[in-house]
Design a protein that fits this description.
Length: 466
C-alpha cells in the first residue's frame, strides 16, 4: 500500500469519533429545500459546509447564491497533469413529516447502537461527508490529494436541482473534469457494496381540483355539489388499471426493452422479491404483472400518489365540503421516456377524466431524465478496486429506481462521465421517519473514498496506455 494512503487511512481511523461529532452538527441543521420556511436553514447549512471545507484546507471555497438555495463549490487544482475528479453531493434534505412518527426528533441526531438517526443522515449528508473526510485525511497528512478536486454540493437536489443545471451550463468550461463521483445510491447490505449504472428519471406533478368558491356545510350541500376531494380521488383511481399498469394512453410506448441476458443478470445480482417486501415492511406485492419487484422498481416506469390534501385534517370531525383538493403525483421514468412527453400524455388523460362539475389544474414541480451509464469507463474500475480495499469484497453492478437529476446534466452539459458509488443501506429509511446512517459503513465509506482518489490516476493512466 502506498505510504500516503496508509497515513490517510490511519488519520481517518483516529479521527472517526470527531468525524461523527461533526456529522451530527451537519445533520442538526434542518436544510429542507422543499419548504420555504426553512430557506434560512438551508443557507446556514451551506455556510456550515463551506466553513468545514476551508477548515480542512481547501484553498478556494465559495457559497454561490442562486434564485433559491446556494451552491457550495470548492476546488484544489494543484496537480497539473493529473486527473480532475468532481465530487457531487447534496446537503438539502427531505421534509421530516410526520414528526410524531420519529422515535427521536428528526433534527436532534441521536446514536443508538451502530446507527446515527436524523433526517439527511443517509440521504445525503453522511455519504457526502465521507468524501469530505477522505479529502481531509489526505490534506492533513500528505498536504495534497492525489488528484485535482472539485467539490460541487447542491442545496436543491430534493426539488430537482432547478438552479444548479443552468449554473452548470454557464460555467461548463470552468468546471471541466475527467470524471464525477456521486454517493447518493444504495448498497445491498453492510458487506455487499454496489455501484449503480442506471437511474430512473422523474416527473413531479401537482393536481388541483377546485369546486365551490368557499368551503361548504356538508349537511346543507352534501349530495347537491360535487365534492372536489371526491372528484380528485375519482381521477386518481383511474390513473391505474386494476392489474397495476399505468392507465395513461401511450405511457409505455417508448420504454426501452431489456433483454433476457440483463434480466437474468439482475435476477442473480439484485435483491429478491422477499428482500424487497421485507425492506418495505409489507406482506404482499403489488404492481405491473410479468416482472419481478426489482424489475418493477428499476427497468419499468411507475406512477405513485405521494400526497393528498383537502378538507378538514384536525382532530375529530368537521362537516365540510372543501373548496379545493390537491394531490402530489410522482412518476418514475426509464430510458427513452421523455419527461416533457409524459407530462403531456398525463395532462391529456386527466383532462379526459375530469368531470364538468369541477375545475382541474396540473402543475409541473420537477423533471429529470433517466440515465444509463457506461460502466466500462476506467473510473468504474477505480471504484471497484476502492470498494474491494474498503469493504473487503468487490461491488455488484445494480440498476436503481431512484433519480439524481444532476447525473444527466453532468454528462450532457459538462461531458463528464459519472461514477455512482453507493454507501446507503436498504434499511436506512431514506425519505421516511427514523432515517439513519450505519456508522461502521460510514467508516468504511471514508476508507473507500481514500482508496478511490488514490486509484483514479492509476486506472485512468493504465487505460490511456492500453
Amino acid at each position: 500500500m502506498d505510504d500516503a494512503v496508509a497515513r490517510a487511512l490511519a488519520y481517518a481511523k483516529a479521527a472517526r469519533p470527531g468525524f461523527v461529532a461533526q456529522l451530527k452538527d451537519f445533520v442538526r441543521i434542518p436544510s429542507v429545500s422543499a419548504d420555504p420556511r426553512h430557506a434560512a436553514d438551508v443557507r446556514r447549512c451551506a455556510d456550515w459546509l463551506a466553513r468545514d471545507l476551508r477548515r480542512i484546507g481547501m484553498p478556494r471555497v465559495r457559497v454561490i447564491a442562486t434564485p433559491r438555495n446556494p451552491i457550495v463549490y470548492a476546488d484544489w487544482l494543484g496537480a497539473p497533469g493529473r486527473p480532475t475528479v468532481l465530487i457531487y453531493g447534496h446537503y438539502d434534505v427531505q421534509p421530516a413529516d410526520p414528526p410524531d412518527a420519529w422515535r427521536t426528533p428528526p433534527f436532534e441526531p441521536t446514536v443508538r447502537g451502530d446507527d446515527l438517526f436524523g433526517r439527511g443522515a443517509s440521504d445525503d449528508k453522511g455519504p457526502l461527508f465521507a468524501h469530505v473526510k477522505a479529502l481531509e485525511s489526505f490534506l492533513r497528512t500528505r498536504g495534497t490529494p492525489p488528484v485535482n478536486i472539485r467539490c460541487l454540493f447542491d442545496g436543491e437536489e430534493e426539488i430537482g436541482s432547478p438552479n444548479l443545471v443552468p449554473w452548470l451550463a454557464r460555467h461548463r468550461r470552468a468546471l471541466a473534469s475527467d470524471l464525477a463521483v456521486i454517493s447518493d445510491t444504495r448498497m445491498l447490505g453492510p458487506d455487499r457494496p454496489a455501484m449503480t449504472y442506471s437511474l430512473r428519471g422523474s416527473l413531479g406533478l401537482e393536481l388541483e381540483v377546485r369546486g365551490p368558491r368557499r368551503d361548504l356545510h356538508s349537511g346543507a350541500f352534501g349530495g347537491a355539489v360535487h365534492n372536489p376531494l371526491q372528484a380528485l380521488c375519482e381521477i386518481l383511481a383511474r390513473l391505474h388499471h386494476p392489474d397495476g399498469r399505468v392507465a395513461v394512453p401511450g405511457f409505455y410506448d417508448r420504454v426501452r426493452p431489456v433483454g433476457p441476458d440483463e434480466r437474468s443478470f439482475m435476477a442473480r445480482r439484485g435483491p429478491s422479491d422477499a428482500r424487497i417486501l421485507r425492506d418495505a415492511g409489507v406482506d404482499r406485492p403489488w404492481g405491473e404483472p410479468g416482472y419481478s419487484l426489482h424489475e418493477r422498481t428499476t427497468i419499468r416506469p411507475a406512477l405513485t400518489i405521494n400526497g393528498l390534501s383537502g378538507g378538514y385534517q384536525g382532530p375529530g370531525g368537521k362537516a365540510v365540503i372543501p373548496a379545493s383538493a390537491v394531490a402530489k403525483v410522482g412518476i418514475r421514468l426509464v430510458p427513452d421516456q421523455d419527461p416533457g412527453e409524459i407530462s403531456r400524455l398525463v395532462r391529456r388523460h386527466i383532462a379526459r377524466l375530469a368531470p364538468p362539475t369541477v375545475r382541474v389544474a396540473v402543475r409541473t414541480l420537477q423533471r429529470a431524465r433517466p440515465v444509463h451509464l457506461v460502466h466500462r469507463h476506467p473510473g468504474f474500475q477505480a471504484a471497484a478496486i476502492a470498494y474491494r480495499r474498503g469493504f473487503g469484497t468487490v461491488p455488484v453492478l445494480l440498476r436503481s429506481g431512484g433519480t439524481i437529476p444532476v447525473v444527466d446534466a453532468l454528462q450532457s452539459i459538462l461531458c463528464t462521465p459519472c461514477i455512482l458509488m453507493g454507501f446507503a443501506l436498504p434499511d436506512d429509511r431514506m425519505h421516511a421517519p427514523d432515517e439513519k446512517l450505519h456508522l461502521p459503513t460510514f467508516g468504511r465509506a471514508i476508507a473507500t473514498c481514500i482508496h478511490f482518489l488514490a486509484e483514479v490516476p492509476v486506472s485512468l493512466s493504465y487505460n490511456e496506455i492500453h
